[in-house]
Amino acid sequence: MSTTTVTQSPAGAPDRAPARPDRVDAEGRIGLRANLRHIGALARRNALQIKQDPESMFDAVFMPIIFILLFVYVFGGAISGKGNNDAYVNYVAPGLMAMMGMNIAMAVGVGINDDFKKGVMDRFRTMPIARSSVLVAKIVVEVGRMLIATAILLGMSFLLGLTIHTSVLHLFAAIGLSMVFGASLMWIFILIGLTVKTAQAVQGVAMMVLMPLQFGSSIFAPTTTMPGWLETFTDYNPLSNLADAARGLINGGPVAHSVWMTLGWALAITVVTAPLAVSKFRKKT
């Protein structure tokens, strides 16, 4: 029979358990290791939800195909000239990478709002986990959906004549830049989803944000033909910066200014909206 040896603490010394950085401390703070473990578990839960409901992937799978076909064959001839659709594919495909991020981000806000209606989020808030981990896990899975949508978009674009004039590494850099900016946009739509009352309201507010940003940008057409006031707006539109950066990385040309502007926008959006979203998540009734 085995025996267990118990070591007594010196007289007057308090008994202390070994420090565990992955546990909740006495003040309720959660260690980094535990936080990452919670994010992983919640991300797996969100991924399993998609597996059980494959229809939730329809927007990520079919919208890229519809968009690239629609814009190339409807606007391609008008902008690049009849028979020059290949040139327009190289122009619009990098821009649509930016558009994919916004569409997926809108779905995040709708999903968060729906989860609150079902009571799922109330259950999460009763658990000893970091409140931010619930939202970060949601973003992790949605970035995965965004990556799938972007891969399908590029696959269709290659079939329509997209040509990489730089290198595969530049293409991956364009994809990574789109993922970073798309993830920052998700915080905006999470905040909207936590603020308004219904999923329909989330979609309505999101469209008011999406439409001016998407069509008042360089995604679909060069801005040089636009009125002066609109051209000024497009210069400061973060979607224009992302589209121009992705276009330069794929087609060649100067990209430093557009890349740094895109990263600056992504950082500013995250720094402002992420704390607001986490705070609203904690206080939402």
Overview in brief:
This protein has 285 residues and is mainly alpha-helical. It has helices at residues 32-52, 58-80, 85-118, 120-125, 131-160, 168-195, 199-215, 228-236, 238-251, 256-283. Helix 3 (85-118) crosses helix 9 (238-251).
List keywords for this structure.
285 residues
Task: Explain how this protein is built.
Helices cover 74% and strands 0% of the residues. The chain is mostly helical and 285 residues long. The protein starts with 31 loop residues before the first helix and ends with a helix.
Given helix and strand content, the structural type is mainly alpha
Spans of at least 5 consecutive residues whose pLDDT stays below 50 are 1-28
Number of strands: 0
The major sheet is characterized as: none
Task: Give me the secondary-structure topology.
Elements lengths: L31 H21 L5 H23 L4 H34 L1 H6 L5 H30 L7 H28 L3 H17 L12 H9 L1 H14 L4 H28 L2
Helix pairs in contact: 1-5, 2-3, 2-5, 3-5, 3-6, 3-7, 3-9, 5-6, 6-9, 6-10, 9-10
